[in-house]
Design brief:
Layout lengths: L3 E6 L10 E2 L2 E2 H10 L8 E5 L4 H10 L5 E4 L2 H5 L5 E5 L9 H12 L12 E7 L4 E5 L2 E6 L5 E11 L12 H11 L3 E4 L10 H19 L1
Parallel strand pairs: 1-4, 1-6, 4-5, 7-11
Antiparallel strand pairs: 2-3, 6-10, 7-10, 8-9
Amino acid sequence: MPEAFGVVPLEGRGRLPFVDLHQEALFLHAVRSLLDVEALARRVVVTVDPGQRQTAEAALRRSHLPVQVAAADLWWRTSAVDGVTVALHDPLCPLVPASFLAHCVEEVVRPPVPDPGPARRALVAFRPVTDTIKTVVDDHIVDTLDRDLFGIVASPVVFEHRGSGAVPPPTEDFGGLAAWLRAGGPVELRKAPSLGRRVDDPSAVNLLECMDEMARAVRER
């Protein structure tokens, strides 16, 4: 089986990855989920902006998680070999189940039968759009768009890293990351579970925590 490793990128996300969810920093939930994916064999790294390193290392030590903290582009510069599969897990989608992550990684690591050839394989998770989408011209609503045609990039993003390209992908923005992958070839989409939604601020973290607690209460009945 080709080598695979996981990346939890904190860069470009400010303080939000360190906000508590269930009394633990958001990004630690993402780290734990990746560590539970057998295909990664505990090869997981947390990447940071320079000002985040000490805080991230301290949180990992407190939680006894043996994970390396590295500069944002280190994984890209040190893994430039053929056949490496990268699983990027956005810490702002902290409750993506490990089972869903494992399924996405396996789809990229294991080539389909028959093998489609040399094209780079890539998979992007998404959540459906639930808001109504309108088009506006000169301050007037002129149309309602079919929201089933749209999706919100979630987590993970999994792809084969073949060591090409001197500039690393835009890991600070998974929407930009999906566009970067599309520029290099076809991308498969997978619908993420509802708890895999992305949070944009502390109030959204509180809402996600409440949703998770309610889901657990229902399962325990």
